[in-house]
Amino acid sequence: MKIILTGADGQLGYEVKKQVKNYDYELISFSKIDLDITNIGTIRKCVDNHRPDIIINSAAYTNVDKAETDIFRAEAVNCLGPKNLATICKENSIILIHISTDYVFSGQKKDPYIESDETKPINNYGITKLKGEKEIISILDNHIILRTSWIFGIHGNNFVKTILRLIKEKDSLDIVSDQFGCPTSARSIAIAILDICAKCVNDKKFLFGIYHYCSSPITSWYSFSLEIMNLAFKKGLIKKKININPITSKKYNSISKKPLNSSINSKKINTNLGIVTTSWPDELKYTLKALK
User: Fold this and answer.
1) pTM > 0.85: yes or no
2) Residues spanned by the domain of 204
C-alpha cells in the first residue's frame, strides 16, 4: 500500500511517520514547504509521480487565535486545501483521510458530540475547518473525515509542552476551568489512522464518512494542567510545583471564542471500524516519559 502524507512536519504528521514503521506500508511524506495543498497543480504533479492508494491530510492551519485575523491563509489551508485534495483523489480513485476538529461544534451541548450533531463553529478556525469538511463531502465519496480534539505529543507546540515550560518560568498560572474536552495524543491518533488505512482498502463493505476519535475521560484545561504538573514532577521533568488557579473563560483574555464543551463521542468508530480509543492519562505518561 502506498500512502502520501501531507503536513508531515506537524505533531500528528511526526507520529504517523514514526508509527508507520510497524506497518507494511510505503509512506511518502511531505511538509507544508514540500507540498502546498493550496496549489492544485502541485498536488496533481505529486500524485502523478507517486500514484498513491491513500492520501492522509494532516496539514492544517491550527493557530486558533491567529485565524481570527489571518483569515485568507486559514481559509486557504483549511478549506481550499481539502477541496484540492478531494478533487485530485476523485480524478485518480484515491481514498482521502482528512483530519478535522472538535471546534466545528458550538460547545453548547451538555453531552459529548456525536457525528450527526449540528455543526455550528464559534470561531474562524472552526468555520474554515467545517468548510473543508463540506468541500470533501461534496466532491469525494471515498473519504474519512476524522474529528479529534486537544492534541498533544512529543513533537511541535501543544498544551502539555506549554504547561511544562510555564511551570519552569513562573510561580503561578491561571488556567481556564469551564472549557471541557478530551485530550488526545498524536501517537494514538496516528495509530488509529494507520489502522484505518488497512481497513478501508481491504474491506469492500467499509463505511466511509465522518468519525470521531478522542481519548477519555472528559476533563477541563485546568484539571489537565494539574495532571501534567503532578506527573511531570513525579517523573523529574520539573523541579518544582506551582500554584495553578482555576479561572473562567470570561476572565481569560483570548482573541477567539472557544467552545465550553468540545467533548466528542467515539462510539461510532469503535462500532463501525473496530478502532479502540485510549486513556489520555496513560498517553500522557508515555509522552512525559518520551520527553524526559
Assistant:
1) yes
2) 2-158+182-215+264-278
